[in-house]
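User: I'm writing a short methods note and want a consistent example. For CKLF-like MARVEL transmembrane domain-containing protein 6, I'll paste the sequence; you return only the structure tokens, no commentary, since I'll be parsing the reply automatically.
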Amino acid sequence: MENGAVYGQTTEENPGPARGARSALAAYFFLGRLKWHRRVLKILQLVLSLLAFICEEVVAQCTLCGGLYFFEFVSCSASLLSLLILIVYCTPVYDRVDSVKVKASDFYIMLGTGCVFLVASSIFVATHDRTSAEYAATVFGFLASFMFLFDFCTMVYEKRQESHLRKPEAAPRALTQPLTS
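Assistant:
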């Protein structure tokens, strides 16, 4: 009797992403591309910029509204950009685009967003009407801007460490002249 007739195939080669312990959306969400400290920074950036935007939206009236509107635009943009970067790092989109370009975009987005958020928070502090919602918005704005800038500094440090590890040590130079005269 032939083995194939008695014993059938009992396992599947590839069950697919929608089956097994990790099903539906959880199968497409992967946090392992970022180190834990960068992951925490990204989540803090998202939460703090979103809190700054929400607190700013609670403000009912203003006398000098230019700072408020600029802060509103920057805090909303920062929360959307940080959400976008987090989605790119944690989904299969990262595999479909060039990882070097994603990291470069993240690098410049963190620098630009951190600086503009710091400026917007400073302008809002100078022009607000001193309500508790405005104080909360500026505190969250400054904290978020510092998280963006700290993430940028972390990336600069990691780039320097990588370039230092890649740089080969200088080869010892051969002596061409005698040591004694």
